Every structure is written in structure tokens, then in C-alpha cells.
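Onboarding guide, step 5: your first structure request.
Type a short instruction followed by the sequence, for example:

Predict the 3D structure of this protein.
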Amino acid sequence: MTDDARLTAGTRELLQAVYALMKQRGDWPTFTAVDLWVDRHLGIEDAQAALLAVPDAFLFRPWQAHGFSNNDPVRLTLRGVTACDDGPEDLQLLERFVAWTVDLERSDTSPAETPLIVNSKAFAEHEGLPIGSPDDINEPPTAGTSTASDAATITPSQAPPNMEAKAIAAEVDAAQGLVARLRVLVDLLPGFWTGSGWASQSPWLWHLTVDRPRLRPYRRVHGVDGLLKYAETTERERTAAASAMLHRLNDTQPSDHTDMPTGFSEEQTTPVQDHSLDVLLSLLREEIVDSCQAPLRADLYDEAVFAAFRRLEDEVQQRSGNSAIGDVLIKSAFKEKQNPIRISDRDGDMDRMVQLFAGAIGLFKGDRSHKDHPSLPCVSRRECLRILAHASSLLDLLDRDLDRAPAVRGYQYDQGDLTLWIERAGARVQVWLDETVPLTTRSFQPGTLVVDVSAVSPGEHRVHLVDGTRHGPAHPVWLVRDPQRSTWYRITEVGVPLYKDALGQQLLDISGVRLEVLEGGVASQRVAPTRETYQVGHYVEWHSSHSRVQGGPAWARDRDGGPLRPLGDTSYLLDGQPSAAVHEERLMRISIEPGILRLHRDDAVPLRVLGHYTDGTATWTEPLNSPKVESTDEKVAFFTKNTVRAKHPGITTLRCQQDGCYAEALVNVAAHPRWTVTEILTGLPPVSGIACTPKGLVVSTRGRHIWRVDVSDGAYRMVTAVPPVSAHDQGTDTIAARDDGELAVRLLGDRRILVLHHSDDYQSSEIVTPEAEGVPMTFAWDSEALLIAMHDGALYRVDMDGTATEITRVQGTPIGMATSADSVHVLCAPSPGPATGDDYNRLWSIPLTDINATTDLLQDHKLAGLNGITLTESSILLSDFNGGRLLSLRNNRIREVAAGLTNPSQLATTDSGDTYLADFGAGAIHRLLP
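The system replies with C-alpha cells like these:
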């Protein structure tokens, strides 16, 4: 009769309950979940006793003597799965997966150093299982495709908002559940992989990095029965080997024969296993057991103590590279100026380590080295075991050497997943939270570990790594729930005086509050009139009500003094509800911007490290000052003074650590093809305007500041601040540069043009007020004057004193302009009004020598949603704001240069042929490689 046939009906129901919970959860259930389920549905009040009564062949035993702890997973063996409904079918799929993996490994011809990665999607396609392929899941390469590294791991991602609203077909749902269960069953096999990962939101998408030598035994395994036999045989051999390691030397009773009965000879003694000693030895370090087990079983206690501490001394010698002994060795090992054993960074602790190790080795080993009888002999097994435990604890301390122990260098938290940047840790490393809670590993790749913290409460915690006997130091982490409030109004000053006139001669009977504002990614400040009482540091909802008293214009001073600034009408008063910050400002994470750099040799481009902060109510980002960024290969590229410099072709990773957080970026230096679209700046507020000047690329981001990527060193820095020119001025918009660097800036909410002078690097300006009807929409330089296109299609030449001369009129609403030596190109959107069926962009080419020869270059193309224009030597480039594309117009043919952008807007081209593209919605600037 087989083991399966001897199972009682109650045991089968219990196994089925565990397997059903696994199918429901996608992983083995905890004892708490099993206990609650079997109590409610099976009437089993003592789940602990019921589980322990299941035969070993069907259920993995808990490691604790008392049984399962609440959070322990309850796992069936492969034999246990066969006793469950759907179990045999699942095991048949498991056997086919193993055979498929073996075939892939045999047919793989890549170099031995290249890992082989298999994934569930490829296997599902092989089996004809329709698991789907959501675009938002980042999968590793297709099975059978070797990669140079395991960097292409599956990373958890959030499903698109509309996924929850879509009903997944029953067939797809069943296939996804089946493939998700397969990953859980694979984990029950003797391991043939070195790394694994899966997507938290889509557990049916997973992968394994194959260990080729450990996979080879599976070549001789055939069928489900063969798989069960191999798994059970391997487990028995592993258990036997572990037992033999503890008992291989001497398993006889103690040699004390003083109480033997008369006439009982020593030869008649039958060897008996000493199980109590085996249990006690399991508490000691394996190195200590190997060294002293034989004399301990022979009751030679002093010899056992000597062997243990001699082994400890030898370990110190090996780690310090010093063959000295005694006090000389210990002082050199812990106090040496170069490469000491560092258990702690505090000098006082290191002094105590010298005392601790020197005292222990001197007392327990030195006292027995040169004497027939030690001064402090060990007289009993109990005392000997306690001394041996002390030697084990000292070895544990050596494993906490900060230069050898597994360590967390930084972390990144993303709403349920904690990504740790680790070093000196293998694939079986375990992460502990607050010294007591083991965390579930989602994926491991060399240098990076992702663990599940979705059930951990927000706040400050400490994590440390355990890799075998090596324990790493604790590393603080902040788990902060993202408040999702990226638009906010924070009060920075109350009781701001408001005036009735621009001279400040008459105070109003109301005051204002000064607000720090973040709207649409753009930071600004404003003063709002109010009769409410607020506190500095609080947030306030942006809500106002009409004042009962007739209002009027008002003025207020900047925070640092200076002239009065107009505020607008005081008829509406701020009365929004205030809310306080939940906690002090915390750094949630850091990011390196851009995250991927594609460069040519000798390129120098800006690189920023952003800190992402929260106080529990609002979130914001700030650039870090003087970040320390390391390159894994400085021969390829290196970071210096907020700039990345490319030296030689190759790939390197840039890494940064700040306050426990870390971030990475990839640099690829190669002969990238012409017009490859690369990111030069990311993580910006909405980029509204760019222009090329002799000193570098100038950038406008809808705020009050103008920035520049300096051509001299490639760094991105602020060059000037633009003052508000009216109460309606909402910040900077598009910009245009003259050949010498003179800069014209369009102001949102104001029809005037601000001209910044290049002669003093934009520290002075003048306002140009066009003496013409209409609102300026776009402009370009024409020698000392501006060509300005108004909202009604009128094109003017405007001098610096405002004198305007009409040149021509075009159909549509101008939105972009570019000039050449003999012509002007004006890009127009459809005119406002009802749809006519002909609502397309127009691109008017206006020869300056013959205005009547104006033509529409887009007449045959019927394009809509265009926004920006620039001229290159060979073509006209156009940005498709709505479609996220960059288009090229040449010889009346449209070609797509790039796609997948967010909201491409203004374009700019340098004399050397570099083209830059502002991506308004993404807060980024792209570069087209020449």
C-alpha cells in the first residue's frame, strides 16, 4: 500500500485546504491563514496538532520544536501535492517545464560565462497557455536567449488605471493562475537556478537564471514519478549529510567506567548515539564542532577547549594576514591602521574587542599551550559546552567585520517594494526587519535585492542582512506612504501688509499670507489676501470667496523687501481649509537624472541627482548639492562637478548614495547613429522654451528662473531670474535667441516681450511693448529687431522701442517660427471656432524678398497637433505635441524621426548641427545626436 493510499480522509482535506489557499494567494499560506480556514470550514480547532500529524512525506516540518509559528509558511511536499485536486495535473506541467528547461540548456550555444534565463511567458507560449502580455511589465529576455548579465530582471510595476475595469477572459485567468502556481511548485524542487524574480502585480510573469551544473541531473529524470523520486532522494541525501557532519567522528558513550557492574568488560560496551549532545552541538558554530567534537565526545574537555580557541586564533590570523599569536596578533588585527577587522567604527568598541579576544584566547588557549595541567581546568561537559559557546560567539563577532559582512549601501522604497543596494551578499541572503521579522525576497540580482514590505507599517525601521553566519550592520530605512499631493500651497508668512497704491502710502484693512506654491511641477510664490487666521508651515486648500466689502487693486512687497508688486483684485479672499504636515521633512528616495545616457566619445553633459521629499502631506523634489556619484568604469565615463564626461566606448553604471538612499544610471558611450534621440535633462518642471546661444542651451520652465547648459563644462545651472512685470504675469514661456545670445522671453499672461541682454550674462533686461493689435504668440530675431506673429495671423517686425511694421498675414493661429537668411517659416494651428473638416496645421514659408510667394508646405499632408519647428541643413523638423512624435519635412515628404515622446514642443538647433527638443509634459530635454 502506498503512502498516498494510507492517508485518512481528514488528512486529505487538510492537505487540500493548504493547496487551495496556495492557489488563491499565489504562494504558500502562513500558519495563521491555515489555522483560521480549517477552523471555519473543517471544524479543526487545533490546526497545530493536525498539521504535525501529517506524515513527513506530504508536508514540510517546521524548524522549531514547538511547531509552526504564526508567520511560518505551511508548505506541501511534491508528494503532498499529488494528494490534492488538480495536483497531478499541476505536477505534469512542472515535469514538462523541467524537460523544456533541460532542452533549452542543451541547445544553448552561448559562452559559458553568459547566464541562461528562462521565463514563464516563453514557457506559456510553448504550452499554448494564453497568459497575456501587459505592456507595463518589464520582462527579462525570452527563454533561451542568453544575456551578458541578469540586469533585465522583472520589476514590480503598477497596472494601468483601466486594467481593473477590464474583465479578463476566463481562459486567460485560468492560464495565469496555473503559471503562477508553477513558480511555487518549482521552488519545491532541488534548486537548479542562481537567481529568480517575479512581478508582484502579475505573479504569472517570472524568470529563473539557470545554474547549468545543477540542472544536469534532471537530464536523467523522466515523468512525474521520476521527478518525485529525484526530489525525495535528494532531500534524504541532504538530511543524511547534515547528520553525518555532526556524528561522523565518534558516536560512543562517555568513557567513564567507574560505575560499571563487577564482571562487566569494556569490550561488551555497545555504541549508543548520544542524541542530547548532538542537539547541544547544533547550537555551536560548525568550525568549532569540526575542531573539538572528537575530544569532547571522549570527555577530554581541556583538549576540546584548546582546539576551539586555537581555531578561533587561526581564523583571526587568516583574516588579518598575520601569523603572530596571542596579544601581538589581536592588537595587530583590531588596531592596525590599514585594513583592521572593524566590528564597529567607534574607537572604544575596538579597544573592547582587543580586550575580549586577547583575554579569551589567552585564558582558554594560552593557558593550555605550555602546561601539562592548565591553571583553570575544565571539569565537566556542561562547563566545556559553555566555553565552546563563547568561542562560537567570538566567531560570530568576526563575521560582523564591516569590510566582510553583507551590507546595505542604500535603498529605494516604492509603495510596497523595498529595493536594497547591497554588497558582499549571495543569492541566499536574507533580510531582517527590526531584528525580528524576516522579509520575503521578491527578486535577487548581484548588487540588488527587492523585498516585500507591503504589510510593514510606515515610519522608521532598521534592516540588516544575514548571509549564512555573516550578519551585516543595521541600516535605517524610512517607509513613507506617498500622500499623492503634488500640487500644494504652503504658508511661509502671515500678516503680509497690503497697500492700495503702488507707492505704499495707504494700507488696506486686510492683510495677506505669503504662499510657497507647487502647481503642475512649477514652483512659485504668491501673496493672497485673506481675513482668515493661518499658521506658518501649514498647507491650505486653494479656495476663495467673494468679499462682502468692495475690493480693488492691491500691492505687496517681496519677502526680502524691494519695490511693491501688484497682486490683482482683492474682491476674492483666500479662505481654504488649513492642514498641518504629518511629520518632519523626510527624504523618500533619490533619482539620477537622466537614468540612461547615450553619448559619443568626448561628450560632456549635465547630470543631476534629485531628492524626493515628503512631510506626509505634500511631496516635492530638490536637486542635491554636491552629490557623490561613482562610476563602475571611469575609463568609459566619469562624473565631476555635476557633469558626466565620456572618455572611451563602453558601458558603465553611475551610482549615488545619499542619507541611506541610492540611485543608479546607465551610460552607453558608442558610435550611436545620427538623429538618435537621447535624454540630456529629465526631472524638470514643464519645459516651455529652449534656445541655443554661444554660451550654451538656455531653458525656460514656466517659473521665474532661466537656466543654461553651459557649453564650457556641460553643467546645468541657473543664470538669471525674471521679475514679474504685472499682476497677470504667470512666468516664462517660449524663448528665442539672437546669434550673439540676446534673449527674447514670452511672458504668460502678458503681451509684452522681455529682452535679456547677453552683454552682462542676462543680469539686465528691457521690456518691449509691440505697438500693434493682438497677442504675441511666437517670435524670432531679425537682426536687431523681432519678428512677432500675433494670434490673428498678423506678422510684424518690431523694434526695441515697440515700433511695429506689418509684414503680412497668414491663415491660422501662429504657434512656432523659424528663420533662415532669406525666409521666415510660421507654423500655425487651426483658427479658433467650430470644426470645418479642414482643421490641420499649416506651415507658411514666407520669402522676405517676395511676400506674395508665400506657400503652405503642409498643404498635402493633413497633420494636426504640431507645436514646434526648427530648420536644419537638410530638412525642417516639426514636433507633434499631441502624438508624441518628431517629424522631418524634406522635399514635400514627411518622415518620422522619433516616437514615444510625451508632449514635444519647442525645438532649437546649434550651428554645429545639434538639435534639442523640449518635452513639455515629461519635463525633459532631448538631444538629437548629429
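Each response can be followed by summary notes, for example: The longest helix spans residues 223-247.
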